Amino acid sequence: MRWYVARRLAWALVATWLAVTLTFGVLLAAPNPGADAAAAQCASQDRDPEQCRQQYLESRGLDRPAHVQYIDYMTDLAALDFGYSESQEEPVTAAIADAWIYSAQYFVPSIIISVLIGYSIGLYSALNRYTLTDYLGSFVAYFGISIPNFWFAIVLILVVGVYFREASLLGVSLDALSLRTYYETSYGVFTVENAKQLIMPVIVLATASVASQMRYSRAQALEYANADFVKTARAKGASTWRVLVAHVLRVALVPLSTILIVDILAVLFAGSFIIEAIFQIPGLGRLQLEAITQKDTDLVAAVTLIPVFLAIVGNLIQDLAYVLLDPRIDYGDR
Amino acid sequence: MATDSRPDTFDSVDWDRVEADTGGVPVVAVVEALTFLAFGAALAYDYLIVPEGEPTVLDWDVTAVEWLFVAVLLLGLFHVVVPLARSRRMTAYYWRQFRKNRLAVASLGYLGVLLVIGVLGPAIWAAPNETISYAEAYAPPIFIGGDLASLDHALGTDAQGRHLWHLIVYGIRVSFEVGLIAMTLAITIGTIVGAVAAYFGGYVDEVLMRYVDIQQTFPVFILLLLLIYLYGASLFLIILLYGVFGWEGTARLVRSEALQRTEEAYSRAAEAAGASKLWVVRRHIIPNVSSTVITAATLSIPVFILGEAALSFLGFGDPGTFSWGRTINAGRSDIDSAWWISTIPGLFLFLTVLAFNFVGDALRDAIDPRSDSG
Amino acid sequence: MSDDQIDERRRRVLQAAAAAGVSVTLAGCSSGGDGDGEGTPGTDATDSVDEEFAPQGPGDRSWITGTTSGAQSLNPLAISDEATNNRLDLLYDPGSVTIDGLEFEGRMIEEYEIADDFTAATYRLRDDLEWGADYGQVTADDYVSFVRDIALGGPDMRTGVVGYSQTSSYILGGEPIEIEKLGKLEFRVNLPQSRGFWLSEDPIRTAYVLPADLIEKYKPFEQREVNGNQANVITQIGQDEAIVEGDLSGNLGPFNFESWDKGQKLVVSRNEDYYLSGTELDGLGAAGPNLEEYTYQVFDEQSTAYSAVRAGDITTTGVEGRKVEDVSQSDGVSIFESDFGEGTFFLSLNHRVNGWAPIRESREVRQAFAHLIDKNTLVDQIFSGYGDPIGTFHEAWGPFYPDDLPTFETGIEPAKEKFANGTGSDYGYDGDTFLGPDGEQVELKMVIDNTQQTPEIVGNYIKQRLGEAGIAVTIEGTSFGKIIANYLQNSVENNPNYDGEPSFQASGFNNGAYDEAIGKNSWDLIYGVGFSGNPFTPWGTIRALLPEQSQFNFMGYRPDFDVSGTATAAATASSEEGTRENMNELFTFLARDQPLTWLFSPQATVAYRRPVEGLPEPDSFWDRPDARTIGLRTTE
After folding, report:
1. Predicted confidence (pLDDT) per residue in C572-618, tens digit
2. C-alpha to C-alpha distance for B167 and C72, rounded to whole angstroms
3. Do residue A50 and residue C508 have CB atoms under 8 angstroms apart?
4. Is there a contact between B137 and C303 if contact means CB atoms under 8 Å apart?
5. CATH 2.60.40.1120 is right for the domain spanning A2-30+82-325
6. Where does the record place the region Disordered (chain C) (predicted)?
7. Domain boundaries in chain A?
8. Which of A7, B235, C63, C89 minimizes the number of CB atoms within 10 Å of its CB?
9. Residue B242 and residue C261: Cα distance in Å, rounded?
10. With an 8 Å Cβ cutoff, are C57 and A186 in contact?
């Protein structure tokens, strides 16, 4: 068992290295529209466009041959030096750290909320199928996932940010209910103002995730809702609640853990580009996209490497969870 | 054998008749092979003989995506419709179960109507670009009223005067294409990989799962950007990428389910009875993880459809197709004034995604052999 | 973002796509809301001065400008775009600013004299200018060192130091200008050519110079490692602590640097030491700034910026013409409109051999395009009327716009006539279809930047019109980057019918004659490439684009007119008369020849939240809110 874990950890490192190498390769193979645009600018200014293209590439270290860039980067990485981000004009670690805080602020609450709501609806729904509340619950859960995020975000901003400020309902001004239209970065993390301006992004993200939580918890609960051991428990007089928690949940935990652990890890390093672009939150999603479109190789590599590593470790933890929770599975002989 | 008046019981089933043979090969398989041969021929004809840009048949220039769609529909026909038709009793049973969920039935109806409109619509309504008219730009839908509203464009027009209804009709097909093709690709690959990995275990499992690790974490987005830059944003590319890179979740899910099934009694019994590993996987494992697979499949369809909309937002959508995502995205800067451009297609998208979800749930409930009929 | 920062040589390749965004970037340029409060005479100054402005954000933030593009750097030597320019304006003053046309007002440069024969200019600096970061007083040494070491700092004194992009402004007729120090605060510049408009074109007047000592620190100029990469001098200087921390500006600018998140937000605070504060300026009242703090906030999503200005979360942002009505619906939003927008939009026609031959062969065919396209419709569609059609390569309101230009009656019939006449017997109309020599309908390929909606609208419109004239059009949408790479850039290698060396090579965008170098893909029409330069010195842009061997003549146009000579004559004319005559001739020729189909020039529109005091009357191009000093304030 221990051997198994050790092997998987070693694999995590190898896979990370592979992913970074692949990313590097793809990135370096991609053409460079920025350089072309810089050249065009210069040509229109009566300057030698080739010079400008060179200058552009040089200042980003992109004019060096590919393998040199790669080796430089890898050697730095071995020393845990993640390099410098040209597009953010700060060291990569600083850029990521800054961005991560912003992303975490809306991601963590969203996941928590969506898990709580999703699991509740899912489990309840499993034991009360085909009832009106079941349908309602499904509708609520699926609502968020069925509308395009960006549409929802823009509409929310318009309604809550703009219209509420001007409108009044039955003579009462709705101004007090209105929220900021975009994210202001100078509020402290744990202040009331910050909490208020996070409400909309969290709503958009949470509603989108509720459905998958609900579905899987419901599916798993359903698997066992009519199983013999449940019937036995009910026959013995156990309440629905006890049946749920003590019997169904335990068994359902194995596959549920699949989703749960992935969620937790996803929270550690994730950012939704759409939400960040619309609400103007300088988080990881934006950072990733900017890094790619500006061919900021150091940043792209770092931003790829971290989630890869976390994901693989996450998978390992998941697999270990199976073993713990389902005594029939054993990795001893694998 | 008395099979007519008594309900089928285990000892009365004529195993020989269960699969009528034609020289050792099932009829259905032969028909399927022939159909695909015909399909292949038509495909070859389009690609090798008909010059680029010319219509393949009548007025219709069949695109790569549409070929793929036809292929998926054919697969669906042979592997879903035919088996259902042949085992009437099972189908009737499934339908009874399914019917319990009225919402799902309504959804199925809605999807059916949508599919028909999507397939036949382009023959009735003109392509959106033919309805461009700057004088009628930003006309509101008929139920809002206003100067420009008229029955001619009952759902309103967009920034260039294109009729919203036309945009929606042409978008149906695109959405179905994206959803179904990508789903088929992803689910097929994922299921096979997951089941095989779980059952064979050992070295096979390791290799497969480690590969899944890499693929799951590979920044597909970068690859997408690169490919789009090299080849231009095209629906075909997007669908392919979603299909080829969207199966890891399914694989892991299937594997976890299958891991449980492998240890169950019937698998061991089959092994003991001398079944080959492949047989066990195909005949015992896969059908029993089917409920998980179906859940995953139906959940993935809307994910892919919405994913395509998200890509439009980022500017990587295929500008040659009129997907709902594209229309919604194009209207997003006008939500404050001409809200119908984004919202009406958004409504259709919403209902469609909802419908797929409801149907998927009900399907799973109906098919899962372990859930009671109560 | 003062207009005066628009250097004659600063031409930007505009993505006309951002036509929607043009107003925005223009606004960024012209009206990003740098409030420059020129108190309009007649405003009751006393009332407003005592008003308190309600902060719009945490702390004392009182003015937030929304914009869609962030600054690329805060390095005064590496200005590559409008946004960067606007930011630097807040920190450093230029030499002088333009009041109107050729009227200037001194800033760092107190006095200026040009010799009678326009071959020399003398400058005197103010006495009270101090650099920050302990670099002492601003003296003539700094200017001299800047021009000699940076602008002309290359090995042969004819090119700039590597990475400096404005050198061409310092070279006239192939010869560099000469600078000599006359005293502690005086220096003289000798021009190799007589330039009547030197004051208007003068790069020194608008340059951001650096302390001589700072430049000295980096000599000898060579590549050094900066942040892990080998970098040239410009980058090295850009990473100098004084610049990165923003300390360098001393008392030279209205604001002091506070913080900068690249691509996100720039915050500056009022500079109490600003040398100009309190000074009475002609027609403006006391110079500002009146704001405690000034913020540039970047928005990725345009609609969020509009919502923010409507809700009052930001103070101002540029607005596209077609959104003006919607944005102004909210209480408290007022729109500053100026007819004097910047930039010209045109449809590019391919004169090279990988395009439709009649375009390059027949002037009538080109004129047909002008007949065909109803520019008013386009202006209405894209800008909701906030634009003006143009008949030549100049803004509609421009100072050199000729009074009577050859015009082309809008209509399908005149267009069809010209298509038929201009193409000779090989082509002809069969009913409504225009047939080519192969008996098939003529088909043209139009390339647009499909990442924005505007080019799509224009593309579809033109396709429709050409369709009505019997010509089929296929539209190919692609990204701006690919347009540059596959269509604009050209070379003889792409031409299978030509062997050997090209007869000339001006740049990657004009790598040979029209029948030698061609782009990777064939094309006939492109919409999405535009230019903007200083409308008061348009010869620079013209010289870069239109002469056969110019840097940016990607179309392969061969004018049968001395474009280059006439433009130069205009630039070097000894009187305004002379310049006007020359430009008139040039523009009239361009109107008649239609090498590119001239479409329209936009107007400027900016939205302000809350009543803003100090907005000027937009009577001229120079009446911009931010024109001369940052003095705008909110009165609520």
Report:
1. 777 778 888 999 999 999 999 999 999 988 888 888 876 676 677 77
2. 40
3. yes
4. no
5. no
6. 26-68
7. 2-30+82-325
8. A7
9. 35
10. yes
Of C264, C220, C225, C266, the C-alpha closest to C86 is C266
Closest by alpha carbon to C354, among C466, C222, C154, C514? Answer: C514
* pLDDT in the model for residue C41: 27
Q: Which CATH number is C3-37+53-91+253-340+605-634's, of 3.40.190.10, 3.20.19.10, 3.30.70.330, 3.90.1150.10? A: 3.40.190.10
Does residue B216 lie in a domain region?
yes
pLDDT of residue B52: 65
Establish if B174 belongs to a structural domain.
yes
CB-based contact B333 C453, cutoff 8 Å: yes
Kindly report the length of chain A: 334
Bridge partners of B333, per DSSP, are none
**Which pLDDT does position C372 carry in this prediction?**
92
Q: Is C227 on the interface with A (CB under 8 A)?
A: yes
Which of C259, C346, C507 is the best substitution to test chain A (most A C-beta atoms within 10 A)?
A: C507
> Residues of C with CB below 8 A from A279's CB?
304
CA distance A288 to chain C (A): 13
Q: Which residue of A has its CA nearest to B369?
A: A223
Domain count, chain B: 1
Cα A191 from Cα A193, distance rounded (Å): 5
Q: Give chain B's length.
A: 374
Q: Do C168 and A47 touch (CB under 8 A)?
A: yes
To the question of domain C344-602 being in CATH 3.40.30.10, the answer is: no
Of residues B238 and B368, the one with the higher pLDDT is B238
* Residue A277 forms contact with C (CB below 8 Å): yes
The per-residue b/e assignment along C388-424, b for 16 or more CB within 10 angstroms, e otherwise, is bbbbbbbbbbbbbbbeebeebebeeebbbbbbbebbe
Determine, yes or no, domain membership for B201: yes
Q: Which candidate in A151, A268, A318 is best for mutational testing of the B interface (most B CBs within 10 A)? A: A151
pLDDT tens per residue, range C106-133: 888 888 888 888 889 999 998 888 898 8
Q: What is d(CA C66, CA C333) in angstroms, rounded to the nearest whole number?
A: 14
Domain that holds residue B112: 79-128+163-371
Q: Which of residues 411-470 of C touch A (CB under 8 A)?
A: none
Domain boundaries in chain C?
Answer: 3-37+53-91+253-340+605-634, 96-216, 344-602
Task: Tell me what pLDDT residue C31 has.
Answer: 25
User: What ipTM was predicted for this assembly?
Assistant: 0.82
Whether C40 shows a pLDDT value over 50: the answer reads: no
Listed by number, the residues of chain C in 401-460 with a beta carbon closer than 8 Å to a beta carbon of chain B are 450-451, 453, 456-457, 460
Residue among C307, C330, C485 whose CB faces A36 most closely: C485
Question: Is position B339 within any domain?
Answer: yes
CA distance B346 to B157: 15
Is B111 buried (19+), middle (13-18) or exposed (0-12) by CB count in 10 A? middle
Specify the DSSP class assigned to residue B7: P
Chain C residues with CB-CB distance to A280 below 8 A:
297-301, 304
Chains in contact with B, counting 3 or more C-beta pairs less than 8 Å apart as contact? A, C
- What are the residues facing A205 on neighbouring strands? none
* CATH fold for the domain made of C96-216: Dipeptide-binding Protein; domain 1 (3.90.76)
Q: What is the pLDDT averaged over residues C196-204?
A: 80
CB pair distance less than 8 Å for C453 and B137: no
For residue B182, give the CATH number of its domain.
1.10.3720.10
Residue C117, classified by CB atoms within 10 Å of its CB into exposed (0-12), middle (13-18) or buried (19+), is exposed
Half-sphere exposure of C315 (CA within 13 A, CB side): 28
Q: Touching C: which chains, 3+ CB pairs < 8 A? A: A, B
Q: Is A74 on the interface with C (CB under 8 A)?
A: no
Interchain CB contact of C229 with A (< 8 Å): yes
